[in-house]
Design a protein that fits this description.
It is a single chain. With 245 residues, the chain is mostly beta strands. The chain folds into 2 domains: 102 residues; 115 residues, no CATH class. The protein has 3 helices and 20 strands. The strands form 4 sheets. Strands 1-3-7-9-11-12-14-16-18-19-20 form an 11-stranded mixed beta sheet, with no helix packed on it. Helix 2 links the parallel strand 11 and strand 12. This is At1g61320/AtMIF1 LRR domain-containing protein.
Length: 245
């Protein structure tokens, strides 16, 4: 079921509709409005959907999911610094989790990656905000980690012994430290670098062990002649040869 840009008469109608479809396996909801109040749907409570496997939710402020067989969850908030509530504690079979445009506290993240979700293998954090400039990833079972577009990120500490794939994409070049990692880990980096600061790339790459750096893509930014503060043109070169782990 996909409900995108749907206008409902009042809050609760969307839950009533879903409750009459107990065999739903894939649910996609985003940018839905309430007519009488003229605002986005603020809350959603999903329960009793025993066959639900995949959920993609966008622009809903409060979400509670009680679906024990859920395997794939994607949640995107509208305003990064706005308050939100996301409760999926009963989704103990979760395998893949994608979070976008939310504030992530370190304590919450560590709790998320604890034994509460023993099957969680893939974590994607996109355009998220951090209270500080550091993020710690500690997990015994995580295998895939993707980090996108962190504006204030300075330090990433990874303690994931079974991690096999790491993707980092962003213009910041944080210090990436591997406390524990698999000997099968491959890391891919997509980043931008100022034309006159290419030297900074050397220090950034030095933080990532050569044996795990599988690919590197660069956006080399050149200033526009006469006004270097305007949005620069870009050149791209990518795909360094894979390095055996």
């Amino acid at each position: 079921m996909s409900l995108t840009k749907v206008l409902f008469t009042q809050e609760g109608v969307i839950e009533h509709l879903i409750s009459h479809c107990p065999l739903i396996e894939d649910l996609n909801i985003g940018h839905c409005y309430v007519y009488n109040h003229g605002h986005l749907v603020k809350s959603l409570f999903l329960h009793g959907l025993q066959k639900l496997k995949k959920v993609d939710l966008r622009i809903i402020q409060q979400v509670h999911i009680d679906s024990p067989n859920l395997e794939n969850l994607s949640y995107e908030h509208l305003v990064m610094d706005a308050a939100f509530k996301l409760n999926f504690n009963h989704c103990t079979n979760l395998i893949c989790l994608r979070l976008k445009s939310i504030v992530i506290a370190e304590k919450w993240l560590l709790k998320l990656l604890s034994n509460k979700f023993p099957f969680l293998e893939s974590l994607e954090l996109c355009d998220c905000s951090l209270p500080d400039e550091r993020i710690n990833i500690i997990s015994a079972q995580l295998k895939v980690l993707k980090l996108y577009q962190y504006s204030n990120l300075k330090e990433v500490n990874i303690n994931v012994p079974n991690l096999k794939s790491l993707l980092y994409e962003g213009y910041e070049k944080p210090v990436i430290s591997f406390m524990r990692s698999s000997n099968q880990l491959q890391a891919s980096v997509i980043t931008g670098v100022d034309y006159w600061r290419l030297y900074s790339l050397r220090d950034f790459i030095r933080n990532i062990p050569k044996k795990i750096l599988a690919s590197l893509s660069l956006f080399v930014i050149r200033p526009i002649l006469g006004d270097p503060r305007k949005i620069p043109a870009m050149q791209v070169f990518s795909n360094t040869p894979p390095v055996a782990s």
